[in-house]
């Protein structure tokens, strides 16, 4: 039985986290004959295992969860990572390292976004098995209060480098559910990523940073365009209802059964991963 000051019901149960999004497989690991997927998968597996930690149950702190999960990960590799946890008050707490993203869509508009951390263009911060990598202390930490009807869209850079905000809003609004939305977003990102004629968010950002075709091609009217082939992970969750007590001593909405409070749908299309 769920008894909360604010009861937030979303589609599909996934432990007690709103989502965990990982991924960034790098060429340097392939050169060392290392499967970079092993690190990210173990990192997320450890994150799930630590959810029942007594301290985390009290504090609901995604940065602390990332610290514990990273310390327990023994695989070699690196990954960008974003972890978000939903408090009983309805506050979404977020810890992000690198260029994974998160957007909250409210009434047809993006009202909140996480922006990437980069050393320089296309070189994001990463949690790593090496001492030179970033740690939980480098995470962007923030929180946002959710409302009924909000949609949370999170994913790796392979999603946001290949899809514009308006496309995300359109797909979310037209999809019958969060799983269909996640799959549609992953498929559109994959399609754009291999389209050499698509002027993607990635190519627009690259040009703004000074990367472009040679000067002689510019004279012919050419410019740097195309999608970005990359790992693609998408997570979508939607707040279906928000119920608060009428007064401090009043009754609060209760839900029976196991589906209490948190949910996501995940669809991913992974490329260049052994």
TrEMBL record:
InterPro entries linked to this entry: PPM-type-like_dom_sf, PPM-type_phosphatase-like_dom, PPTC7
Gene3D superfamilies tied to this protein: PPM-type phosphatase domain
Reaction(s) catalysed by this chain's protein: O-phospho-L-seryl-[protein] + H2O = L-seryl-[protein] + phosphate; O-phospho-L-threonyl-[protein] + H2O = L-threonyl-[protein] + phosphate
Keyword Metal-binding: yes
Protein name, as recorded: Protein phosphatase
Signal peptide residues on this chain, from the entry's feature table: 1-20
Cofactor(s) annotated in UniProt: Mg(2+); Mn(2+)
SMART domains per the UniProt record, alphabetical: PP2Cc (SM00332)
Enzyme Commission (EC) number: 3.1.3.16
Domain PPM-type phosphatase: residue ranges: 1-239
Entry's family note: Belongs to the PP2C family.
Class of the enzyme per the UniProt entry, highest EC level: hydrolase
